[in-house]
């Protein structure tokens, strides 16, 4: 990678709340911004807020037909209308039409996506990979300027995997994943935290647009390597819970031999991997059906080149 | 009230898990007991475990058609089959047939009901009223013998209100309401706590059945006096969140003038009542649709007469 990169200023920026219809911080923030759009304006740009999945929001469920945030792949975006297709496929095409098309020159410059998790992940910043220069600089700026809590960086893209998330339709994106918060609940502390993180991110864009030079840096981030399912009975029902010693320990080291599950009868199940990992999304409500008890993460240091506008 | 009462020994005892299909401690406990029934046996009796709302459990939602735990009133229990009636009305009649009929001599002697809340209510014991002698003795026994955490007593019946809960079909009942736990999540710590509380309650029944004399006592309990809705916009949408100073403060005193809500723009809304109350079910996920931000409780001391078996 070059020691420094130049990118165009960001003029078209959007933020989605309610990509999942029961994650309330972003839903109430987006609704608040739709009533009070001034809060999303800066000198050089303004952010367009929108509700990701309005039908799911109305029912206060994660999704109606299928997970919207797994629907932004070529397969779904290029599909033709069909009568029995899930609502989210229709909605993904709409969003791609409005803020994309994905991969095109017309696509929005940047999209924020606001989420909550039941896991104890704090103020987590999710980026597709460390190669996304502008988002990595944004994370660095947030970590430096938002000092009320740590903001771990989660790199979600597995090698060779196609991007599938809502903000992959824009040229770049950042997902805020705040927790722990139960589904269908809005906590004032997390609402305020999400709003402050957004304000900090917009300050970064404003500085970038106005020509600030951001030097190269080294940064720690967690990169996904795989996922761990729950132990299950032969009928598919889970047979064990996340171990109390692992519960709430997102982004802390898990070593070979450490307990990870406890069966309903009380037996411990130990981690059999060969290396230390850093679990995240531990005991996330929505991931039972995805067969994910936690995401397996490695901790790395990355060298990020400098950045300034063209 | 008499200074001491004699009641028949308890032979028919049941426990429902999954009366709400997304409250996971009771669901996984009931399923565990259905696989391992010995855990619910004592010398003088055995408990029958069952799944309260199987269809809701399968979908991992609170209910399919209407809240099952508000369906055990004369209106629903005496209704005749209709094609368009909600599933839970059918299910309530089934449960009433099996474990009741409500108010009859054939009804089960006792029913436990296992719940979770997203509110910070700890190991809460819910009884209809302080006049329910055997459940109050059971609560007293649990408070004395289960010492890992406080077990506040919540008296749920408003004056003049008909009982509507699932365990009202039995002659007496106790509801365990453990939190905080997100919907659709099972935490090992709360699972173990619920199992231990049940074991303690069964020990009490065994002692009672075997002739132990339980003397009169004084006990503190929280009695509901009403419910507080969220502030709302004219379109019905909520316009404020539970205030961060009230969040997680279940069963702690709330005084006139204390903040209770924070609008999405950041203004405080203060409590305008005349007396100190003790809120509970603060920010419970399932109560947004019931228009309840918290239950208003009074704290009282009650004198409970002695108890022994006939």
UniProtKB/TrEMBL annotation, chains A, B:
Q: Which residues form the active site?
A: 177
Record-given protein name: N-acyl-aromatic-L-amino acid amidohydrolase
Q: What main location does UniProt list?
A: membrane
What the record notes about the co-factor is:
Binds 1 zinc ion per subunit.
Protein's cellular compartments? Apical cell membrane; Cytoplasm
Signal peptide (residue range):
none
UniProt: Zn(2+) binding residues: 20, 23, 115
Q: Which keywords has UniProt assigned to this entry?
A: Cell membrane, Cytoplasm, Hydrolase, Membrane, Metal-binding, Zinc
Task: List the Pfam families.
Answer: AstE_AspA_cat (PF24827), AstE_AspA_hybrid (PF04952)
**Topology in membrane:** Peripheral membrane protein
User: E.C. number, please?
Assistant: 3.5.1.114
* A GO term from the CC aspect: cytosol
The entry assigns this protein to a family as follows: Belongs to the AspA/AstE family. Aspartoacylase subfamily.
Which InterPro entries does this entry report, sorted A to Z? AspA/AstE_fam, Aspartoacylase, AstE_AspA_cat, Aste_AspA_hybrid_dom
Provide the AstE/AspA barrel-sandwich hybrid domain boundaries.
Answer: 218-299
Q: Does the keyword Membrane apply?
A: yes
Known cofactor(s): Zn(2+)
Name the species this protein comes from: Platysternon megacephalum
Q: Which GO terms describe its molecular function?
A: aminoacylase activity; hydrolase activity, acting on ester bonds; metal ion binding
Q: Where is the Succinylglutamate desuccinylase/Aspartoacylase catalytic domain?
A: 13-205
What is catalysed by this protein?
Answer: an N-acyl-aromatic L-alpha-amino acid + H2O = an aromatic L-alpha-amino acid + a carboxylate; an N-acetyl-L-cysteine-S-conjugate + H2O = an S-substituted L-cysteine + acetate
């Amino acid at each position: 990678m070059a020691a420094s990169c130049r990118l165009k200023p960001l003029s078209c920026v959007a933020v989605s709340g309610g990509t999942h219809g029961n994650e309330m911080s972003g839903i109430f923030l987006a609704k608040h911004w739709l009533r009070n759009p001034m809060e999303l304006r800066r000198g050089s740009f303004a952010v367009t807020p929108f509700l990701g999945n309005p039908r799911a929001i109305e029912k206060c469920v994660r999704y109606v037909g299928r997970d919207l945030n797994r629907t932004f792949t070529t397969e779904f975006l290029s599909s033709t209308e069909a009568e029995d297709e899930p609502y989210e496929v229709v909605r993904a095409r709409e969003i791609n039409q409005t803020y994309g098309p994905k991969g095109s020159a017309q696509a929005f410059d940047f999209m924020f996506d606001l989420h909550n998790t039941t896991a104890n992940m704090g103020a987590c910043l999710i980026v597709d990979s460390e190669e996304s220069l502008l988002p990595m600089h944004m994370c660095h700026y947030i970590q430096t300027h938002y000092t009320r809590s740590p903001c771990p960086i989660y790199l979600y893209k597995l090698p060779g995997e196609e991007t599938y998330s809502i903000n992959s339709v824009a040229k770049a994106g950042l997902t805020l994943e705040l927790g722990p918060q139960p589904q269908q609940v809005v906590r004032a502390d997390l609402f305020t935290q999400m709003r402050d993180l957004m304000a900090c991110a917009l300050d970064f864009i404003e500085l970038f647009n106005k020509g600030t030079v951001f030097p190269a840096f080294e940064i720690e981030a967690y990169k996904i390597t795989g996922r761990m399912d729950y132990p299950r009975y032969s009928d598919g029902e889970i047979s064990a819970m996340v171990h109390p010693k692992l519960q709430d320990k997102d982004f802390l080291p898990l070593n070979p031999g450490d307990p990870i599950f406890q069966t309903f009868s009380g037996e411990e199940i130990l981690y059999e991997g060969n290396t230390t990992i850093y679990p995240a999304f531990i005991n996330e409500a929505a991931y039972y059906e995805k067969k994910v008890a936690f995401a397996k993460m490695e901790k790395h240091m990355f060298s990020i080149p400098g950045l300034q506008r063209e």
